[in-house]
Amino acid sequence: MNSFTEINDKIIESTIEIFTGMVMMEIAVAGEPLEKLGQLKKSITGMVGLAGTHKGVLAVHFPQQVALDVTSSFLGMEVSEINEDVQDAIGEIANMLGGNLKTILSDRGKDIQLSLPSTISGDEYAFTSQAEVDQVILPFQAPSGAFYVEVELER
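The structure corresponding to this sequence follows.
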């Protein structure tokens, strides 16, 4: 039994809300939650850590082209290479999603703290947890391709 069953819909709703309202991009759910992601190729991941009553991480994984398009839409200017603007934009999207997750998981978010957002990117890397975690990986479709919102919470 996945402990995320009851919060998946809220994570989906907040992701669509952030993309529609802040990124100015229409997105849609792209299928059922995934068990694992495997190697990420030519991608960028934005993440925030959670500490307090729930410990874990929220990550959002974008292929580079999707990250460029998301950043261009978010900033309202053309971005053609992975640079500091893209890292900042992807980090901020992770931060907004993390803030919403904090609210979903706790009463008014007072018993969970978020880390500062960070990003990783590269030609090929894996995103895995060292701890025993429950996780959900939600696939979304943006106009230029798929991306994934991943939540891992320690058991």
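The chain has a mean pLDDT of 93.
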